[in-house]
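Per reviewer request, we include the raw input and output of the structure prediction for the construct analysed in the revised manuscript.
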Amino acid sequence: MESYIKEALEIVKAQASVRNMTEEEITSMVQKLAKGIKEISEGGAAAEQQTPAVDPKKAIKEKSITCLECGKSFKVITKKHLARYGLTPDEYREKWGYPKKTPLVCKSLQRERRKKMQEMQIWTKRKK
C-alpha cells in the first residue's frame, strides 16, 4: 500500500471514531485525502495558482483596498489580517505581484499620511 493511502486511512479512521460514517463516505474520503496528500507531497498543489478575489491592479482604490485573499474591503490591510492566511505583508505583495514598497493602504489615506509627514518634517532637527 502506498504511504498516501496509509496516511489517508489514519485520518479517516480518526474521523470515523468521532462520528458515524457510511461505507461510501469512508471510501470517498480516503480517495480524496490520498489524492490531496499525494499532490501536496509532489508539489502539485503548490504549483496551482490561487485566483485573486479581484484584479490586483484594481484592488487599491481611492477609498478602499480589497484583500486579494478573501475579497473584503479595508482602508488598510494589516499584518494581523494577513496572518490569517499565513502571509506577511512582503509575502502578500510578492504573491500578488506588487512592487516591494507598495503600501497596503487606500490611496486617500496614503495621501493623508504623506501630507501629515511633510507637515511634521521629522527629518529636520528641532530648535530648542
